[in-house]
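note to self: dont lose this again. the chain is below, predicted strucutre after it. 277 aa total, dont forget to put it in the shared folder this time
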Amino acid sequence: MNVHPSLDLMPEAKPQRAYGHARLTVKASGGRTRIATLYQEGCAKIRLPDRDDARLEAVMINTSGGLTGGDEMRWQFDAGNDCHAQITTQACERIYKASSAVANVETTLSIGENASLAWLPQETILFERSALKRTLTVHLAETSRALIVEPVFFGRKAMGEDVQNCLFRDRWRIYRQDKLVHAEDFAIGPDTASMLARPALLGGMRTMATILLLDPDAERDLERTRKIIGEKGGASVWSGKLLARLVDEDAYSLRKRLIPLIELLNQKAGVPKVWSI
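---
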């Protein structure tokens, strides 16, 4: 069979990768938190549903439908002085099988004086042989408040998904007035199944959530937080921070405790409506 000679000169096709970058700045105006600037590029979109109160809600959307090796997402949110906002996602973020490259997600939050921001994305779902590197950087003013919630599932029990191998790296750096006040790095994989079985990690569970409240009055919510968490997790308070971790066997069981915990810590703003869709 003859092959057209020009085909030999064509470079090998590379798989298409998803890229998205979105930036939202909000300001206080007329007793409400309102949009100041919005920038969107690639598969990263932000929608702003109406609310009955003065708080602004932003919904992040990844129009690519999930992430795989080599995909990149960048999110940036700036809440000005006296603003009150919460950020969530339209749906769970799915991390699919990767060949060799890693999916990268970078998020930066800046919170002004007397402002509050709740970071409330829905669950990240890691599938078999997925690979994700994620960084979260938060800059707080002296009088600002932040609630950060990150739930993660290693496969879905109801769908019969069993994750044996994946790679997950999660890095948090939080500053108040340019001083580092909280840092943590979570790393698991590639032999995920054996690591999840360890008592110091998930003890055989497949879902987890980390909740961090940065508020000088965080201690007042400690006992109620521990009551909601129960035996599958724990919570501590120090230096104006409340840190809680939850684990469970499946998504439904985790949410039964995570939702009331968000309702407790989110200044009566509750859980975003998209969580119930």
